[in-house]
Amino acid sequence: TKDRQAMPTTQACRTEVTQFFRRVARAPVDFFKPGVWWSEPVKGMREACKADAVRLCQGAPPNKVNQCLKSSKSSLSAACKEKVFAMQMHQSEDLGLDPHAFKACKPDIDKFPECNVSTPAGAQAECLRSHRQELSPKCRNELFRREQENSADIRLNIKVFTTCKPEVEKHCKNEEFGQARVFKCLWEKSLRRQLDGFSEECKEEVTKMAHRAVSDYRLDYRLRVSCAKAIDAKCGEEKKVVDSMSLAELSGGQTADGQYVFEGKAGQVVSCLKTHFKDIQSKSCKSAITRIVNVHALNWSSSPVMKSACEQDVQQFCAGTKVDEVHLCLRKHLDQLSASCKDKELLQGSLEAEDIAMKPLLMKSCTIAIREFCLGVVPGRGRVIQCLQEHMSKPSFPMDCQERVADDLEASNHDWRLKFGISERCKGDVEQLCKDVDLSEAKAPVLTCLKEKLSQVKSAGCQTEMRSHIAKGLENIRFAPAVNAMCTADVEDFCSDVQPGGGRVHECLLRHKEQISKQCADAEFQMQALKAADMRLSTNAIGKCRASIKSFCADAATAKSGKGAIWACLEDHLDEDDMDADCRRVVQKEMMLKHSSFHLNLRLAQYCTADAAALCPAELAKASFKDFHSEGVVISCLAKHLPKVNGTDCKAALKRKVSQRVQNTWLDPKLRDACEADLNKLCRWAKGAHSQQQCLKNNYAKLSDACKEKQKVYLAASSILDMNKVVSKVCKAAEFKFCKGVMRGSGKAMQCLLSHMHHPSMDVECKKALEVEQKKRTESVDFNPLIRDNCGADLQKLVANGTCTDRQNKGWGLECLTEHSEAIKGAACKKAVTNLQLRQSADLRAKPEAAEVCEADIAKLCPDVEKGGGRINKCLRDHKDQIENPRCKQKVTSVHKVDKKHAFTNYRVRKFCANEITAFCKEVEPGDSRLLACLGQHFKEKSFSTKCQSTLVETDFATALKNAPLGTMQVEFKTMLDRHRGFFDKWGTLLLFGSVGFVSIVAFAVSYYILRRKLFHPGYNVVVPKDLES
Questions:
Q1: Percent with pLDDT over 70 in the chain
Q2: Looking at residue 796, what is its pLDDT?
Q3: Which of 487, 569, 737, 794 is deepest in the core (most CB within 10 A)?
Q4: For residue 253, what is the enclosing H or E element?
């Protein structure tokens, strides 16, 4: 039996030998009495450990020296350490060789007969541990002491070492025994997803040992040693409490007085260390805590503190959940947990969020993904976790890892403290912006608060983290806890067949926005408002528009991106040929959504609320619910009252929206409904949105009242140049050439272009666009902004006094004003009507209905005559008797009547008599035929051109001369005299009086000087300055 390398073969012999060594173990070695021989538990131990015993265990009774040496193992000499370890090995194999433990547990061995065994090695102690809660306090204490002493070396745990010996030899052969190194190696290897040669039996034993070790800091060697200073500094009170408690109080079971404790209080020191994790500087201690968090992550009940706090919550919310997924389950029900359980889960979750090493399930599932997508990412501070989240939507991302990352992300979104980046970078903003948040109000209330107040967040780091969080929620509704909670039933009802991800569920809810519940609509509206304010929050939109942003909106992408700048820029470039088709569709869809609600437009909501309250109070009240049900009525109402809007910023923002609706009237959510019947009646042939909209515009006069009312707003708006993108684009050069000093916004710029429409150098494309604009204007006064805004009172009077009775035909108001322009009193109105008359003189088609009623006659009588420049008008006048359509003849006669009477509105006179007007009638104020009379008066002047004379012959200048007022003639006569007077005629009198005065002054000065020289003779010299006035 030397060194117990070989045991006797017979049972009787083995029993006898075992009893012998148990007796030897009970006989203490006296290291302090030289010459006295005692038996040794291990051969040579007395000699090897004598000096250590004297140094470390002086004063200890002989039967306590072995225990002293074990507890001082780290300080022993190498020789003694070897012998002590050998003794521990024997005691691990046979409880009877540990006299103190055997004595304490003898009654329990008798109580549990199945534990009265000596084989296999370690069986007896293992059996007793299986009855831990039922053991006597003394036995439990001794077994606990043995566990603590044996925690440094896995070989002392016979069952684990025996089961895992092949794994140790294969996977941990380079690790030295001691300091729990081999156990740490086995634990880390056991977490690998697939590791050749690592048995399930070994994994099970290692897991059991890990769970036991993390239940009490004293049972975890690496934690106990590495964190000794941290425990004293941070957790001194907890350590004091734990060390003073009995095992029954710590872990539950029978106490010394016979009472039974059901809930233990162990794990307090470990929990304290977790709480102070971020404050601990020691890397080895942080590593030990990381491993403990890792163990707790896999089994929630391995933490006594967690088990005590959450047992009922687990039963209520997570019954049937896999033990390694209980934490995820608890986080998903975070707002429903008891206060104590919630605190413990937040602690565990916040630590896991810091490092993927503390998320073993995620680490296990994502090894390949980490290697492929996050290889260069430095572990820690949540970086690897965030990397996986950012790449999880890629097609090549491993499916099992994707599912695990999605589950983890969904669970962590229930509280800002479960998200490392936000919890680290948003503390200051949370304290400032969300201090009054009611934590019981909603899912993830602080995250909801930060989302709602994103524009007020000051920290750049917090803004970045929140944008990332919101973007993930827009990508997948599972990651938007508030929306997900509010829309669960709606998603089930309307989107059950929609695959989550890619923003598809959100798009589905938007398609059913009129049907979803109020609570879901409210939550979804908030998400869409965030996206509308910052395109970067939509990974789908950014992905499809990346190239277009680079081409058109590089500046917008780097400045004011949170104010809708990127969206606005892309909207402005929507018609560019180089715009990516997918991006165009994304932007168009976003525009449709934003036009459906006032509050989805950041600038409108910011600048137009006051104007909306004044002009559209009922519509604003409807939109204030922010639930998609307002149907864009505030924008529509403000567009209708655009001239009355006071705010400069509001007007600019509103014009932009109206301009978009001008280009695409379907952006008005209610217009299509209003015009559905008209589409079916008038435009059944039209295919596509553009064709349908153009058809409705061309048939404006035939539209139903409801449709016409809607169309009128945008047709009227299109008469303003900066709201008509088509004309603005094709007439850019013409505007610069002809209307450079004319301000946009009031209708003057468009009027200027129309006035130059027939200029020889006018761009062809611009002219075509202006012809469309001119045709539209013939439909109604409303489409002529300068007339509409200035002629309301005059038109009303003409109607009231019976002057204009025919109000059935299109453009009747324009006809009324141009036919009775002499009756107009308002100067601004007269000016606007005069301009229209001039354009009608240049082009008969500018007169209401003229293009339609004269189309056939023009084709027949003037087929080769170029339109514009008064040419068609003259041609039709020359063939007046041949005009077949009486209404056409009436239109020609009406324009000619004005042309004959007024030179200022006669396009041909203005064109061919321009020099004569400048030379002879420059000072004549237009109106009342004064200009025509002036030209008639000078008709026979030699300098009059033949072309002007022939043009004047077509007018009634003789009547104008006859009817010209006397005052007018006197003014013209005076003007003529002034024009022909020379310089001295004009200024002679003034020069005469000036010359006389100057000569008188000079004569007086000379006389005074001579008299002074003669009469006065001073007796001293006078020095006269060179400058007489100095």
A1: 89
A2: 94
A3: 487
A4: strand 253-254
